[in-house]
Amino acid sequence: MAQISPTDIPGLLVIDLDLMEDPRGWFKEGWQREKMTALGLPDFGPVQNNLSFNASAGVTRGIHAEPWDKLISVATGRIFGAWVDLREGPSFGRVVTLEVDAGRAVFVPRGVGNSYQALEDNTCYTYLVNEHWSAEARSRYTFANLDHPEIEWPMPLADAILSDADKTHPAMADVTPFPQPHPVIMGANGQLGQALRRVLPNAVFTDREELDITDPAAVEAFDFSNVSAIINAAGWTAVDAAEGDGRADCWAINVTGTANLATAARRHRIPLVHISSDYVFDGAAEEHPETEPFAPLSTYGASKTAGDVAVAAWERHYIFRASWMVGDGPNFVRTLARLADEGKSPAVVDDQFGRLTFADDLARGIAHVLTAAVPYGTYNLTSDGETLSWFQIAQAIFEARGAVGSVSPTSTEEFTAGKEIATRPRHSTLPLEKIKATGFQPVDGQEALQRYLEGLG
């Protein structure tokens, strides 16, 4: 049975293959997706198969770090392989060497320099890659010189056969590291986008001016070549406007734009993080687990539902269901704090129940799943603690502000009388057991509310 072994270079894996031999020769499964991914090999999605034939022992190629992953093995002969981590970070410069024959394969992650010396005449090695080769892609290679102090070549380089180009690559001391992949975040200026800036400072942040996600041509043209994850923090959140003149724009951003990002994520094999809403449910049940069937009550809710469906069609996805967002920007808590400070006495609905989601906490949860090898899927993520009504939250805000005025309770029916307002779920509480099981602990809602109000001054 095939076995996979890690090496000193993160992500560089050695696969000992099942070689079925008889008097006629041998047979092997060089790439078997179901078996190999079950053993722990990344499902890297190869799109091109290359062969390198080496007529003479001593032919030596490399050290090349390429902007794709590859799975190498040998068809005939034997090679001595040397891999050098050329990625920026703590493992930069690490070296792994080993011999590869027909019974072995090596998975090489992008940014790890690879080099090979043929040990026999008529050696042919084969490799699968998950990007199509192009001159533009080659311009993004990182090179290092084969004359590396930690590599003992079986045939000295002075006697080996090298290309002129490989002779001129820079010494390790002069190598510019291969850049680490980074997340790209859509909706950089929203409440969540601003929170993500604080927890993912190495990310690329875009807003509609940089990338209009509703334009499929613009998304297709965007450079995802060194992106580790797409985080869709963009969204139409004007719930009431979506019932009228904003209906088309709501659908364009929440559905068409999301579907465009899902297409890009699938094409580039990138995880997609998407923010969903309690509005995908009708609010009839007091709590809404991740598995509850969709039942939106509004245009906005329907648009978020359709976006969820588009994202879930790509298996490498994280959908976060949140409710009642609070961050840097207009939100219920800021509005009520202002009214309290102004001495106003507003009426607030007391028959809608849920928990606040703090943008900083949601951003922390996103960073957690991207760094902790959390299984793909849908996760509820709001603050923890007691379920409260909007009225109870407003009371807590007025008390914390030492308000002169007070809040009074009202029903949704009374509050919305004569207004064109989208139907809200009555119950919005999202249970948190699934996200907690990954090792993430959401903040306590009442404690986080107090800290948020203190931050407002």
Sequence-ordered SSE layout with sheet pairings:
Layout: E1 3-6, E2 13-16, E3 19-22, E4 25-28, H1 33-39, E5 48-54, E6 60-65, E7 70-76, E8 79-85, E9 95-100, E10 104-108, E11 112-118, E12 123-129, H2 135-138, E13 142-143, H3 164-167, E14 182-186, H4 191-199, E15 204-206, H5 216-221, E16 227-232, H6 247-268, E17 272-277, H7 299-312, E18 317-322, E19 325-326, H8 332-341, E20 347-349, E21 353-354, E22 357-358, H9 359-371, E23 377-380, E24 388-389, H10 390-401, E25 408-410, H11 412-416, H12 433-436, H13 445-456
Parallel strand pairs: 14-15, 14-16, 16-17, 17-18, 18-23, 19-22, 20-25
Antiparallel strand pairs: 1-2, 2-10, 3-4, 5-12, 6-11, 6-13, 7-10, 7-12, 8-9, 8-11, 21-24
Characterization of this structure:
The chain is of the alpha/beta class and 457 residues long. It is built from 13 helices and 25 strands. It has helices at 33-39, 135-138, 164-167, 191-199, 216-221, 247-268, 299-312, 332-341, 359-371, 390-401, 412-416, 433-436, 445-456, and strands spanning 3-6, 13-16, 19-22, 25-28, 48-54, 60-65, 70-76, 79-85, 95-100, 104-108, 112-118, 123-129, 142-143, 182-186, 204-206, 227-232, 272-277, 317-322, 325-326, 347-349, 353-354, 357-358, 377-380, 388-389, 408-410. The strands form seven sheets. A six-stranded antiparallel sheet has the order 1-2-10-7-12-5, with no helix packed on it. Strands 15-14-16-17-18-23 form a six-stranded parallel sheet, with helices on both faces. The protein is elongated and about 90 Å long. The mean pLDDT is 95.
